[in-house]
């Protein structure tokens, strides 16, 4: 290329790297024309070595790369990286600690500019050995602190779901929860706290009979809903808040089996806004969305220093918005009217203070 332009290799380098020099405009134009003619493209690797930057980001995950449910997190991170001309090295460890350690060493050898450590669902995790001190945790929190992290605000999400049902006029609202036990997700307790908080705010009794457990599956949701729908008329719920969308689908099945119409006879709200599930029900399911895409963006922006740095051990809780569709309505007329007569003045004041949504 230097020969084609009739200049030295040093001149070519100065021109193509936009280095300040006394090279004339005519010579610069000639060098760039020669570069275009031979299809020259600058080496990002070479530029990165000069700048001591590799233009790459390492993203280590447990399972999210193979899980469509959380693929939006990757999309959010990738979009930010692409906009800033960064290449993402994604390693899906399958939850294998040995693979994880190997990945951390490999990314360090590649001299990645930043590291994101991600999980498939909201959880507290041990910090892997060798993880860079400036790594960002995505959809998980380090057990010992010391890192920036982003997780969904599941307590506020549980409150938003329950508030949606209270605002529709419901007074007997059940929570179909996941099973108890050592594998119970953090999100379950947080959503339960939000549910109870809103009931108390509305002056409604937190009835243990309306808090039931089941597998986080369609079958688990159906079995739990069947139990609730068999309760005596005086305590039977008019609305169900389900831990996730799959359990809500099971609740639909239980309602349909009893000849109940949604939302005319029973309102149902889910959680996750899971693709190919929530919007495909009949009627489409009102649900709380997990902000996967927004969390992925936030983590990449913080990792790259694009977003203002927060405290090193700060956890950012991302809002979980209500996705309104057609599965929530007022309670049936035959229960709504008596319920309203029994509602205390305190409850009426609480509900009238609830902002329109």
Automatic annotation (TrEMBL):
GO terms for molecular function: DNA-binding transcription factor activity; transcription cis-regulatory region binding. The keyword Transferase does not apply. CDD domains: HTH_LacI, PBP1_sucrose_transcription_regulator. Keywords: DNA-binding, Repressor, Transcription, Transcription regulation. PROSITE patterns: HTH_LACI_2 (PS50932). Residues 1-51 form the HTH lacI-type domain. Residues 345-357 have a biased composition (Basic and acidic residues). Residues 323-357 are annotated as: Disordered. Pfam families: LacI (PF00356), Peripla_BP_3 (PF13377). InterPro entries: HTH_LacI, LacI/GalR-like_sensor, Lambda_DNA-bd_dom_sf, Peripla_BP_I. This is LacI family transcriptional regulator. It comes from Microbacterium telephonicum. The lineage of its organism: Bacteria, Bacillati, Actinomycetota, Actinomycetes, Micrococcales.
């Amino acid at each position: 290329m230097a020969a084609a332009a009739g200049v030295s290799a040093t001149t070519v380098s100065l021109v193509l790297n936009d280095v300040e020099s006394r090279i004339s405009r005519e010579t610069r134009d000639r060098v760039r024309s020669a570069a275009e003619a031979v299809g020259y493209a600058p080496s990002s690797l070479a530029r990165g070595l000069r700048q001591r930057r590799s233009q790459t980001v390492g993203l280590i995950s447990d399972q999210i790369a193979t899980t469509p449910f959380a693929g939006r997190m990757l999309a959010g991170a990738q979009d930010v990286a692409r906009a800033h001309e960064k290449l993402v090295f994604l390693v899906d460890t399958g939850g294998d600690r040995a693979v994880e350690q190997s990945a951390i060493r490999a990314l360090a050898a590649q001299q990645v500019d930043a590291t994101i450590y991600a999980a498939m669902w909201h959880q507290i995790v041990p910090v892997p050995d060798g993880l860079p001190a400036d790594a960002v945790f995505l959809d998980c929190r380090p057990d010992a602190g010391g890192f920036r992290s982003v997780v969904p605000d599941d307590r506020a999400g549980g409150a938003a779901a329950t508030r949606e049902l209270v605002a529709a006029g419901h007074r007997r609202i059940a929570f179909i929860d996941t099973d108890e036990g050592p594998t119970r997700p953090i999100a379950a307790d947080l959503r339960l706290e939000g549910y109870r908080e809103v009931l108390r705010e509305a002056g409604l009794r937190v009835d243990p009979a309306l808090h039931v457990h089941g597998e986080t599956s369609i079958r688990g949701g159906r079995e739990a809903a069947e139990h609730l729908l068999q309760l005596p008329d005086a305590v039977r719920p008019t609305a169900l808040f389900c831990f996730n969308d799959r359990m809500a689908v099971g609740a639909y099945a239980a309602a349909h089996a009893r000849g109940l119409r949604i939302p005319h006879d029973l309102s149902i709200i889910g959680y996750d806004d899971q693709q190919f599930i929530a919007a495909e029900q009949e009627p489409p399911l009102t649900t709380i969305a997990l902000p996967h895409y927004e969390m992925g963006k936030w983590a990449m922006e913080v990792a790259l220093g694009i977003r203002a740095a927060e405290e090193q051990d700060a956890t950012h809780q991302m809002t979980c918005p209500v996705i309104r569709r057609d599965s929530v309505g007022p309670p049936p007329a035959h229960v709504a009217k008596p319920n309203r007569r029994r509602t205390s003045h305190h409850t009426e004041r609480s509900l009238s203070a609830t902002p329109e949504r």
